[in-house]
Amino acid sequence: MESGKIMIVDDNAEFLEEMREMLYLGGYEPVAIKESSTALYAARKLKPDLILLDLKMNKMNGFDVAQKLKAFPETKNIPIIAMSGYFPVERNPSLLDTSSMAACLKKPFAILDLISQIEELLNGR
């Protein structure tokens, strides 16, 4: 497994902490961000290797965050994995294309599925 800095953006504090802990135990360097509006600044400053991004958040939804991240030169190449229990991305895969997200995991998801997606994107497969 290749380690890397993973930024997790989700407005659910409990889920965010669980994800942070699981990724840390998996050998990654997780950075937890609770506010979608903070995610833009944090990504530009921290330059994570990958971003896990919830799609349904308060101030700015995940699609908007992803589109803005892809507009900045310093963050445009960071792979983004969307996470959602609400948006039916599996029924409309073009939603990922319009926001340039690499993948989407439907909540709840198995941690092994998440790790597999992360490894695939970090290793460029």
Structural class: alpha/beta
Cα radius of gyration in angstroms? 13 Å
Strand content: 15-25%
> What is the averaged pLDDT score?
86
Largest sheet: 5 strands, parallel
Number of helices: 5
- In total, how many beta strands? 5
Report helical residue fraction.
40-55%
Order of secondary-structure elements: EHEHEHEHEH
User: Strand order of the main beta sheet, please?
Assistant: 2-1-3-4-5
Instruction: Please tell me what the overall shape is.
Output: globular
Which stretches of 5+ consecutive residues score pLDDT under 50?
none
Distance between the termini: 13 Å
Your description of this structure?
This protein has five helices and five strands; from the N terminus they run E-H-E-H-E-H-E-H-E-H. The protein has 125 residues and is an alpha/beta fold. Helix 2 packs parallel to helix 3. The chain is globular. The model has no long low-confidence stretch (mean pLDDT 86).
Summed up:
With 125 residues, this protein is α/β, with parallel strands linked by helices. It contains five helices and five strands.
What features would you highlight for this structure?
125 residues; alpha/beta; 5 strands; 42% helix
Helix and strand layout, with pairings?
Elements: E1 5-9, H1 13-25, E2 29-33, H2 36-46, E3 50-54, H3 62-71, E4 80-84, H4 94-99, E5 103-106, H5 111-122
Parallel strand pairs: 1-2, 1-3, 3-4, 4-5
Helix pairs in contact: 2-3
